[in-house]
What we know:
The complex is a heterodimer of chains A (222) and B (229). Chain A has 222 residues and is α+β, with helices and mostly antiparallel strands.
Amino acid sequence: MEEVKLLGARPSPFSYRVIWALKLKGVCYEFVEENLSNKSAWLLQYNPVHKKIPVLIHGGKPIAESTIILEYIEETWPQNPLLPEDPYERAMARFWIKFGEDKNPTFFAFFQTVGEEQEKAAKESKELLGIIEELGLGDKKFFGGDKVGLTDVAFGWIAGWLQPMEEAVGVKLLEPGSFPRLHLWTQNFKEVAVIKENLPDYDEMLAYFKSLRQMFMALAKS
Amino acid sequence: MAKSDVKLIGAWASPFVMRPRIALNIKSVEYEFLEEILGSKSQLLLESNPVHKKIPVLIHGGKPICESLVIVEYIDEVWSPGPAILPSDPHDRALARFWAAYLDEKWFPAMRNIVTAKDEEARKALMDQVGEGLVLLEGAFSKCSKGKGFFGGDQIGYLDIAFGSFLGWLRALEKMNGVKLMDETKTPGLLKWADSFSSHPAVKDVFPETEKLVEFAKVLAKFKATLPK
């Protein structure tokens, strides 16, 4: 059994994606916490191109980029499949995972900007949530259907991180009345045992996001 | 499989459209190519890709699949047996996907922005970025090819397709700017690979001519100038 290590950083949602996938598959691993303001020699060696976490190291070989790590985990440990068997359904899952990644900048902008720029980002973010709800999730319980799949894991940040972000910014994006299905999904997702047991502490995240938000607001003023 | 069962909505100059075309050629799958016209989007495109309204879109048995690399993986999975496009080893697959993501998220945007760079300084900075990226990709080529002719080894594979689809535009850019971004000193492996790739039977009929792309770039620039800001 080859060794599995995960270089990550709490409370990064990207790290958690990998934690969830490994735990859903029952894979044992060692978590190595990176200090992102003082990156380890390991991280620089294992991800020289981007120098970012998470990095999975399996049998000494590194895999970087969270969504690529998710596919690697799915292929290496076939128990409890997280992707559908049907190629068309797999393509749909991958389409939505990519959609989420491509649209990260809009949500970052919501969190990092102020004034008119922030209002624009908030409006666009809500539109994206609408598209994700209507066309991605639809009437399914999970993006993966009856049970959690890779798409749910990829969108997990909406369930665990969006709320403290909204609270730190003082603007609500995911209103239950406006996005009832997506809101229900966040509740269902957080109830899954592996997810429930592996979510960062809300108050810690709120404090973290509040201090980050203050930093961005100060930057915007200067 | 009847030709009408497989349709691809695209345009000849798009590197992203080239990707599924090469994949279908590798698998010897016949398909109907539906060419979109610059400046308008067909009803079929808008209906098949309501989220992005972009090409390429593969329509197989009436069902649309969008995003070029998602389509390539789909083609690989549906038409098997047939020459494999993704490597079989999970770590090699992860490496191929990693470099394809790097190309799409970092390298190609820098290359594309050279055309609209606001001044010479900005253009030079972007060209340097593209050049540095090519050096990284030369390293990736050494590692992935394991001494063979393609990123995929003996046969062209996922990363060959992902990267190779940008070669036409790379050459057009070199011509328009009078520079050599891929050369014998810094990227000898890639230079040789580029020749092998562009003349490969699955590629050569869909590989755009440099001259045609240079002309098209002018048409595209004029068209973009007419768009509302």
